[in-house]
Fold each of these.
Amino acid sequence: MSLKVGILGIGQAGQRQAIGFSQAENSEITAIFDINKDKADETAKEFKAIACTKWQDMFELGIDILVIATPHNLHIKPAIEAAGRGVNIMMEKPLATNMKDSQQIVDICKANNVKLATSHVHRFREEVQIVKQWITSGKIGDIMMIRETMNGQKPNPFPQWLNSKEIAGGGVFMYGTIHGLDRIRWYAESEISEIYGKVRYFSEEDEVEDGGVATLQFKNGIVASVSACSPGYPAQPSNWDTEIYGTRGLARLRVRGWAELSNNDGQKRITTSHISDELGIHYNFVRQAEDFNKAIIENHEPSVTGFDGLKSTEMVLKIYESNETGKPVKF
C-alpha cells in the first residue's frame, strides 16, 4: 500500500518532510503547494509530484496525508479542511499560535476519525531514543531532575515571518525549544503542574524572544530547567544537551552527537554523529514518516500524537504568560 502525500508549504520544514515521506516505506509525494510558484514547481519536479495552483486542489488528487508546514498562524484552516475530507494530518510544530486553535485542531481530527501527528521529529533521533531506552529499562532509577540547554546562532537567513509575534506566535521557545520541552515531558512521563519562565529580546527590532530560562514542576515530582539562547551573532560552540538525573544514575545526550550513561556500573558513551552519514542527514524525518504511515495502515495512534503537540504548545504559551505576569503559572 502506498499512501499519497500532499505537502503544504515548502520552506525548510516542508522540504525535510518531503524527503522523509519520499524515502519512507508505504508513501509517495503526490502533490505540492507553496505560495512561491517557482519553488513549488521545482520541488514537484524533484519528487515527481504535481504542483498545485491552489492548496485545496491537492485534495482532488486523492491524498491520504496532508503535511502542514506553513507559517504557524495558518495551520488551522487547512487542518479543518483536511479533517473534514477524511485526510490524515502531519502537523509541523507548534499546532497553532494559541490554545483555542490548537484544541480545535485536535478535536476536529478526533471527530472526523483521522490521524493527527505532531512533528516532534527529535523523538526519532538515535541518541534521543537510546536515552529513552535507558530510562525505561531502569538504568538510572527514578528520575529526579532534568536539565535542558540549547545554544546556537539564529539561522541565517532567518525567515521574516519567524520574527512576527502574530504569525509565529513566539521566538526560540516556539520554533526550537519546543522540541526540548516535548522531550522532557516524554522522558518524565508526566504532565506539568507548574511552570515559571523569563524570556529575553537581544535586539530592539525583535518582536519575539531570542532566549530565556524556564523551570518546570511535574505532577510526579520531577523538576526540570530549560535554558535556550539563539542570538543573531555566532554563538560557539553550538550545542543542544539534555541531562536526566535519576536515583541510580545520569543519562545525557547531545543532539546529533552522542548518548552517555553514568551509574555505579561505570560510564559509557555511544556516538551517534555518524548516523546521519549512514542513513542521511534527515533520517529522523524518514523514521517519523514511517511511524505515521504504519499508524494509518494498522489503524492505531502515531508515536507523537496531536495531544502531544497540544501539550508542548501549552508549555510554551505558559512560559510566555509567566514572563508577562512575573509569577509561576499553574496547570
Amino acid sequence: MSIALDHDCAGLSAPKQGEASSLLEGEGTEMRDERYRVQSLGRALDLLDRIAESGSEGARLTDLARGVGFSKAAAYAALATLIARGLVVDFGEGMTRRYRLGLSLLRLGDLAVSNIGLADIAMPILRDLTQELGMTSRVAVMDEGFAVVIGRVDAPGAIRFDAALGRREEPHCSGVGKVLLAAMPRADALELLERVGHEGHTMKTLTSIDALSADLDRIAGRHYAIDDEEDHEGIVCVAAAIFGRDAKAVGAVSVTTLKQLLPAKAMTAAAGVLIRHSNRISLALGGPLADQAWRTRR
C-alpha cells in the first residue's frame, strides 16, 4: 500500500506572485508559517514521537491512530511509508502487530550530531560557566596526543591567561589533558604519555609514570582533574570530560584562575559546577552523564 502525504496540501493557500521566490531567498521565517506546513506529514512525524514514547514494547496501530488524529487506514498507510524508509519497524502478526523506531533514525541522528561542532554546542554553556564561577572557561579536544583548545570565554576583569585557540598543551600537566587521559583505557593513556613525553614545567609537575598513573586513578574516581600549578606557577585549572554517544570522551571543559582565588577548600564546589555544565554538553551530543560514563571505566 502506498500513500501520498501531500493530500492535505489542498487546504493550503498558494503563495501569491513573488512569494515563492521570497520563500526561497528569505531568512526562514516563511518556513515557520502555518500556510506552508503539510498536515499529513506533520501527523506522520507525530507518529514517530508516539512510537518513541512506547519504548521497546512498541505501539499498536489503534493507539497510534487515536493519538495523532488519523483514521486507522491513514495511520497504516503512513506507517507503511515510514517502514519503507527504515524509520519504523513492525513486528508481530495480526492483532499483536506493533511498531518501533527503525535504525535509519540512528543514522540520521548521528549525521545531525556530526554536523554540529563541539565548539558550537559548548560556547553558550562556557558563557554560563564563566558567569557562574567568574573564571575563564575553555573547551578542548585531544589531537595527536596533545590537548588543543577550540573554544574559550574569558573571565571578567583584567586577568587574561595564555589560552589561545589551537594551542597544544602537553596532556600530563594540563587539566583538560589529564581528564582525557583518565577517560582512556589505561594502556592507551600510558602509551601516549611515553610517546609525547612528560617533562617537568614547574616544581609541582608530575613527571614519573607511577605518579601520573596514580593521579589518573584519582581523576577517574572523583570525575574531574586538577592542574595545581603543574603547567604554570600561580595558576590552577579544574577540568571535566565531555562524553559522546558511545560514552567515550570526545573533549573536556575547564575553568582556570589564579591559585589565590581558588583555595583547596573551594575546589570541590567549583568542580561540581563544572561537571554540571559538562553534563549539559554531553547530553547535547547524545552522550551519558559523567557518573554513568565513568562507571563504565571501572
